[in-house]
Amino acid sequence: MNTRRRTVAVGLVAAVLAVAGCRNDAPETQEGSEGVKFDVGVTQEPCPDAVDQAKGCIYLGVISDLTEGPFKALGVPVTEGQKAFWKRVNAAGGVGDYEVDVVKYTKDNKYNPQVHNEVYAEIKPNVLGLAQTLGSPPTAAILADLKASNVIAVPASWTSAWAFEDVILESGTNYCFESMNSVDYGAETLKAKSVAAVHFPGDYGDDAAAGAKIAAAANGLTFTDIPTAPGQENQGAAITKLVAAKPDVVILTTGPTEAATIVGGAAQAGFKGKFIGTSPTWNPALLKSPAAPALTALYLQSGPWGPYGTDTPGHKALRETVGEAAFRAAPSDGYTAGWVWSYPMKAALEKAVESKDLTRAGLLAAVKSLTTVDYEGMLPADAGKYGGEPNDRVFRQSLISKVDAPSPTGVAVEKNFFTGKTAAAHEFSKPCYQ
Amino acid sequence: MNDLVATVVRGLGNGSIYALLALGFVIVYKSMRVISFAQPAFMMVGGLLVSYLVLSMNFFLAVVVALLLTGLLGAGVERLALRPMIGKPVFVIAIITLGVDIVIRTVVNSFIGVDIRQMGDPWGLKQLAVGGVTIDQRHLATLVTTLVVVAALFAFYRWSRTGLAMRAASSDQEVAQAQGVSVGAVFALSWALAAMLAGLAGVFLSTGIGLEQNLWLTALKALPVIILGGLDSLGGAVVAGLAIGVVEALVGNYGGSLSPVFGGDFFLVVPYLLMLLVLLVRPYGLFGTREVERI
Fold this sequence. Notes:
Chain A contains 15 helices and 15 strands. Chain A has helices at residues 3-22, 72-91, 113-123, 136-148, 175-188, 202-219, 236-245, 256-268, 292-298, 313-322, 324-329, 334-354, 360-369, 390-393, 421-425; strands spanning 30-31, 37-38, 42-43, 56-64, 98-101, 106-108, 129-134, 153-156, 194-199, 222-227, 249-253, 274-277, 299-303, 398-403, 411-418. In chain A, strand 4, helix 2 and strand 5 form a beta-alpha-beta unit. By secondary structure, chain B is mostly helical. Chain B has eleven helices and two strands, in the order ααααββααααααα. In chain B, helix 5 packs across helix 6. The radius of gyration of chain B is 19 Å and the shape is globular.
């Protein structure tokens, strides 16, 4: 190659590199029917299983624990609950001139942050937002990118850290406030003088334990912290410590089998205090276990919303859409959670369409402008406030359920939505467990 | 004092489960020189089968039938997935066992679903007071059953012709084959025994609250046990399993402030710390065979 040709070749390569370097990574904004702008994850072509072929499609990704991860028992019904929710929305006419698809880009994270990150990168170019991102550690793995790319995501967890993230569209109260309310309930209704928190480590158990500790101090109760690890065979020490401390109320944040091992084991050892477990501590199948009598006598459940059998228009619509047969095959309040978590996404999409901006930035702006969400009675409308400071907008109400074998998920509401005095007064300036 | 005894018995109960699991690992290792990562799957299969069989028969009969079926599955897996790989590097075979584990557990999980399946055992969460010490009946049942099974297993290895053949194959496969021992049959029997032991561990592990999908993680506790006891020592697996169970229980109860970093969960780290300490002094485990290497 002579010098002249070499110069031309180098020049061409430099030009290609320069053009590539200047390429705009931001997706191209298009305009759909009625002047609605959109960029990623929205098409004018119908959804794969469209009810109305004339409508466009909004694609939302779902990243859940679906096959072999530790939270599959939650991830599968949550995903099914969400599919049922959007099926009903589409059947009722969709969102503006669009229907919503939450099936095509459903991925399994195996509850592994690395897998979560990989499948997120895979579906990100095709989805407007995430209808579900299951698990705090996996979600933490993609949080920076969610923020950088304005991707709105619905978390399948209740940690208090989510209130501090604009792109996270959480629903209901978090573990921290829920446990504050449970301790207040224990002090006022159960006349407790002492409280213990038996909990897993991490932003699930530690968040609840932090709330319980704050509320114990506010009520002048003695507090015992009993961390424990997953696994039925690992609960012996927690039971021994609990029986020795003899608290009047125990706030439980473990998995279902660990909770049943602790409640059953403590009851066998003569423990008479009450247990209030967060919703992940419950599985209706426990009522067939040897711990059933102890659970019926000693266990209450706190929750961010009422269980599957609750009498609200939203719960009724959930039951009708999921269907008796599908629910009976695997009774779980995961269906309820998946359904409830979808309401604010629907409200935000409607607002974005109304504002004629269905781009990712437009959806983020729509989320921030939400002051109420119609949860059809499953949550008060003011639970859907997403703009402003976390301390002003965080939803502080929770409810208490009791074991009720005939109910669809084995629990029924004992005390409806309430905010305890501790939660009402708490200055929420950072995640409770930090 | 009573509290201490109760804690030790609880530790022996859990330790028995670790010992049963570890014995399975050791039996496969002795015959094939491979660590079988399929043990968690067989543990789940044993529990799952009992949970279904017990709906139509007595618990003890269900356990016997379930273990026979689990043993058959173990032998089948060896014949179909492992036998064709003889002669391949052990690393490759170990990875195949990992694949077998995932496949079987995925099938088992589809039968468990969101359920917590019950064993229908006579112990449940019931306790027994002996001389002022309150202990869980299921822990006692696990310990006694393990001791009986271990005694039978040792007698089988020591005095039966098949046991002798297994020991011969473990010592030197080519020489054993030359003496008329069917090494293939030894492999199949090893897998069947290992699967049955894991299945039994799964049943006892599920006797408290029930069998759920995450229970398989407990099987991983057998890994520090086999390293501690010695990869090729049946006695080592039993002693190390029971020791780790007891140490775990004692540290869990009394050692909460031993580590500011791990706090109350320090007991979970203890098996691995023990393993590291033993490896420093005895690289082949407490009872493992020291390999002679020519330099």
